[in-house]
Amino acid sequence: MSSCRSLCCGDISQSAVLFLCQGTLAMLDWQNGSMGRSGEALLLDTAHVLFTLSSQIKEPTLEMFLSRILASWTNSAIQVLESSSPSLTDSLNGNSSIVGRLLEYVYTHWEHPLDALRHQTKIMFKNLLQMHRLTVEGADFVPDPFFVELTESLLRLEWHIKGKYTCLGCLVECIGVEHILAIDKTIPSQILEVMGDQSLVPYASDLLETMFRNHKSHLKSQTAESSWIDQWHETWVSPLLFILCEGNLDQKSYVIDYYLPKLLSYSPESLQYMVKILQTSIDAKTGQEQSFPSLGSCNSRGALGALMACLRIARAHGHLQSATDTWENLVSDARIKQGLIHQHCQVRIDTLGLLCESNRSTEIVSMEEMQWIQFFITYNLNSQSPGVRQQICSLLKKLFCRIQESSQVLYKLEQSKSKREPENELTKQHPSVSLQQYKNFMSSICNSLFEALFPGSSYSTRFSALTILGSIAEVFHVPEGRIYTVYQLSHDIDVGRFQTLMECFTSTFEDVKILAFDLLMKLSKTAVHFQDSGKLQGLFQAALELSTSTKPYDCVTASYLLNFLIWQDALPSSLSAYLTQQVACDNGDRPAAVVERNTLMVIKCLMENLEEEVSQAENSLLQAAAAFPMYGRVHCITGALQKLSLNSLQLVSEWRPVVEKLLLMSYRLSTVVSPVIQSSSPEGLIPMDTDSESASRLQMILNEIQPRDTNDYFNQAKILKEHDSFDMKDLNASVVNIDTSTEIKGKEVKTCDVTAQMVLVCCWRSMKEVALLLGMLCQLLPMQPVPESSDGLLTVEQVKEIGDYFKQHLLQSRHRGAFELAYTGFVKLTEVLNRCPNVSLQKLPEQWLWSVLEEIKCSDPSSKLCATRRSAGIPFYIQALLASEPKKGRMDLLKITMKELISLAGPTDDIQSTVPQVHALNILRALFRDTRLGENIIPYVADGAKAAILGFTSPVWAVRNSSTLLFSALITRIFGVKRAKDEHSKTNRMTGREFFSRFPELYPFLLKQLETVANTVDSDMGEPNRHPSMFLLLLVLERLYASPMDGTSSALSMGPFVPFIMS
After folding, report:
1. Cα(151)–Cα(187) distance, rounded to whole angstroms?
2. Closest listed residue to residue 633, CA positions, set 661, 608, 659
3. Model pLDDT for residues 622-644, shown as the tens digit of each residue
4. What is the pLDDT of residues 192-231, one digit of tens each?
5. What does R_g of the chain's alpha carbons equal in angstroms?
6. pLDDT of residue 459
7. 3-state DSSP: the chain helix, strand, coil percent, rounded to 5?
8. Which part of the chain is the tRNA (32-2'-O)-methyltransferase regulator THADA-like TPR repeats region domain (predicted)?
9. Which residues contact residue 135 at a Cβ distance below 8 angstroms, ignoring those fewer than 6 apart?
10. Residue 964 to residues 921, 923, 961, 968, 979, Cα–Cα distance (Å)
């Protein structure tokens, strides 16, 4: 033990001391007083060492270990106290310095972002309560001053502090809830009031559960059976019913989801009390001429909504024996129908949930329930709320699962021919009757849903109907081994309904297209009605024409239409000319082989058309934008590849040249449209002014900025003018008529009108589709480990070329839509490279990162990096490289990059360093906003805050602007996403002690900056001179509030800030 003490006091690293303390606590026997007085002294010394380390260690991993070791120390202390050690009583009671330091640690870390660390603080708090109980054992510990003072101090804290709930729960378990309710009887209502905040709901519901369980146990032991339940209901159920009837929407939703199930699970008998109170409330108000608040309205659920919510939760958790008990004993048929068409959407959802949900998946669906479901669907398919639509579809799917599962039971009963009495627990009628009712019900539901898919029906109606039909097709499928299925959707599909589903592809909403496509794929042999060659040719030709439409949603329609023809093997026979190798189809793999063959034919056809269009676009981009925007073809190719399993191809020899040609075609297309996307002003290319004076001014502006544009776009524009007879001086009309002598693929010659918007849409969507295609190819296609490999489709050189492509366009594109989508594709590439076995490919992200950092630092005037538009795609590029780095490693790239960026983001007197500083600030903002970096970015928050505050004092506007954006990102990263509309809300705040313990470097920095601001106050006028950083400093300080330990400890106190703020 003496050697351990000397090691702890020696000059060794913090981590070594930390784990030495862990070994001391883990390996020594602290039970039964075997350690003696020297062991007790070692225990106290270990505590002081750990407290010292807690103020020094800030690395997240070591912080985690420290919290676990402190919790282990409290366990050892309890073991020593249980061995009746009188010498430690004074050192470990509630008023001792060690317990005070433990409380300080708990208060500082009870809202730490690491969940595991918060859990350790709970263990510590529970243990220190146990320690104090052991020191006062034999006395009446409940009125003990320590417990009283601790309870009152916790209750004085604001309810938005999450740690308060955890500590109160521990205190309830220790001293009982009755002593807390004696201080304030309204605590249950206060806790229910804060349940409108989603972030607090789990903590509040857990505390309420702990309290009402403890209270019931206490009342049962202290009070006669006839009276205690009424007192318990008054304390816990009555506030709940008030919230269900009168609370706001979020509050009621969270109470129903989190608190009500726990209450009913613990006290099922309380359901009768709730129903009685709510029925009485409804009956008392019915017939009044006012707005029937008990029945609810569009803004309020009322007592009827509360009744339905309680019954729904009770039935879903098995607290109602059967549906018969519900309808006959608890609620009338009229109330059910009233709930199904209630003005308030949640009342309708709860009533539907009461009908659909059950704790037994095989519970028979009664005839009354089926009639009510049909009644509900008639009036509720057109809900405008996405959340309500999702809940309706989810609940109906649960009902279909019940029908499917219970039908299997009924079928077995029917097959066994066993004579059941009417009182049978499963059904009161013959199984065959119930099965026929099921079949009729499902057919009726499908009839209603297909009737809702009429031409011109709204998006919400189509979404609901298609989603429900998809659920029916999914639930009532016929897998191998299943003997009986009560209903099959494909039996009710005729030519008319098939055509109705096909017409859903014409919707402008992609969600409707997806649902229609998925439903058609679930139906067996749906394309048999389209096997006529003329119809197939017309459908395929329509898809090709839609893929070149100037309306972006048309190419999405073309993609789903082509995929449908591919998977249904319904392509025109003429496409077989694109194949040079036939597919060898085994019986087991025949569907996959057919899909691969069809996909290859369609992609070759699309590429042939795309090649011709790119060639024409190279001569006239304006003509292409007006007549045949190329992004639709690329979108269809990507869509076809996404549906194909690219890791098990049979026609590898045919796919390899296709992939190579596809890459070259993508580069050619990108070259055509990149001058627009990389222009310093891509949003307008064709002058649209009809006024000759304003048009001449615009031309003058173009000539003035031409030498300053590093992308040579306007030189390219002149080339286009020469080739296409497009004269920028011809501004007599708001649109430009393109030369009509150009023929388009043999089509009828027509005059095309082109606008600036059409050109921009064509260009940025083309870049978007190329980026997504390249990213998908990198993610899905197997890479050749060696050039001689015969099963790979991408070579190492091709992957490098794709990386260079993304680098060029992310770093040079100005249009946000273009580089955001390029980022999506680049992320897929970097993820693949980090998992690649090829060492040269693994090193590529690191090489690209060093290259761009050097380019940022050099500040070369000829650099094409965009310093405006928040550095455009540069932050996205670096963000993709760092976020894809394996999190289980040491994150060396992140550490080195952050060090470089923070050094660049600091204040500088060199004007030439302004552009690198702006880039660094913008990149830091992107990195701090990236959730994938998680806690790995937290150690750099303090340095980032310093750079943002100091950058706000820069004389250069660009630096100040970027610093403001970085500061906003840091505030969100530190205090969380703002959820309250109130600027002074206490939800996104923390104590000053917690803030400065997590970021200790900011304590002296903010204090010094605040002193500097205070010194700028005009002594005569008494007004500040608007110091640049004053606003940022106050924004940080307003989010800090006093810690419960501020009165007992001066370290990291907010006190020194007060005089400067007052001045």
Report:
1. 13
2. 608
3. 888 888 889 999 999 999 998 88
4. 999 988 888 999 999 999 999 999 988 888 776 667 888 8
5. 36
6. 93
7. 70, 0, 30
8. 232-513
9. 81, 89, 92, 93, 94
10. 9, 13, 5, 6, 21
Read off the DSSP letter of residue 577.
G
How far lies 590's CA from each of 587, 594, 596, 896, in Å?
5, 6, 10, 53
pLDDT in tens, 697-719: 445 434 533 433 344 433 333 33
User: What is the spatial distance between Cα 305 and Cα 95, in angstroms, rounded to a whole number?
Assistant: 51
Extract the tokens encoding 119: 């859990």
268 touches 310 (CB < 8 A): no
In the block, residue with structure tokens 């369980």: 213
Q: Which amino acid appears at position 769 of this protein?
A: E
Residue 131 near residue 76, CB atoms below 8 Å:
no
| pLDDT confidence of residue 681 | 63
Q: What is the pLDDT of residue 389?
A: 93
Residue 1038, both tokens: 């307003």
Burial 574-598 (b: 16+ CB within 10 A, else e): ebeebeeeebeeeeeeeebbbbbbb
Cα(562)–Cα(547) distance, rounded to whole angstroms?
Answer: 10
Count of residues in the chain: 1063
DSSP state for residue 1054 in the 8-state scheme: S
Position 657, amino acid: P
Q: Which residue has the tokens 């090691």?
A: 7
Which of 22-26, 335-339, 450-454, 742-746 is predicted with the least confidence, judged by mean pLDDT? 742-746
The angle subtended at Cα 470 by Cα 465 and Cα 474, nearest 5°, is 150
Phi-psi region of 628 (alpha: psi -120 to 50; beta: other; left: phi over 0): beta
Closest CA to 852 of 866, 839, 831: 866
- Tell me the C-alpha distance between 600 and 842, whole Å: 31
Does the structure show a pLDDT above 80 at 782? no
Asked if residue 699 lies in contact with residue 729, where contact means CB atoms within 8 angstroms, the answer is yes
The C-alpha angle 625, 628, 632, rounded to 5 degrees, equals 100
Confidence band of 29 (pLDDT split at 50, 70, 90): confident
HSE toward the beta carbon, residue 6, CA cutoff 13 A:
3
Q: How far is CA 150 from CA 141, 162, 1049, in A?
A: 13, 17, 16
pLDDT band at 650 (very low <50, low <70, confident <90, very high): confident
892-905 vs 941-951: helix axis angle to the nearest 10?
A: 20
pLDDT greater at residue 590 or residue 698 = 590
Residue 421 burial (C-beta neighbours within 10 Å; 0-12, 13-18, 19+): exposed
Query: What's CA 694's distance to the chain center, in Å?
Result: 47
First to last CA, the chain: 54
The bridge status of strand 753-754 relative to strand 990-991 is unpaired
Q: Which is nearest to 902 in space by CA: 887, 919, 880?
A: 919
CA 678 to CA 768: how far, in whole Å? 14
Q: How far apart are CA 1029 and CA 846, in angstroms?
A: 36
Tokens representing residue 110 in the block: 């009870």
Q: Contacts from 436-444 at CB under 8 Å and sequence distance 24+?
A: 437/367, 437/370, 438/365, 438/403, 438/407, 438/486, 438/487, 439/486, 439/487, 441/365, 441/370, 441/373, 441/374, 441/403, 442/400, 442/403, 442/472, 442/476, 442/486, 442/487, 443/487, 443/492, 444/374
Quote the CA–CA distance of 572 and 540 in Å, as a whole number: 7
Instruction: Please classify residue 810 by burial: count the beta carbons closer than 10 Å to its beta carbon, then call 0-12 exposed, 13-18 middle and 19+ buried.
Output: buried
Q: Does the reported pTM lie above 0.90?
A: no
Q: Average the pLDDT over 663-686 and give the result.
A: 76
Per-residue pLDDT tens over the stretch 851-874: 888 888 886 666 667 666 777 788
For residue 745, give the nearest of 545, 1044, 559 by alpha carbon: 545
Structure tokens at 450: 């297909």
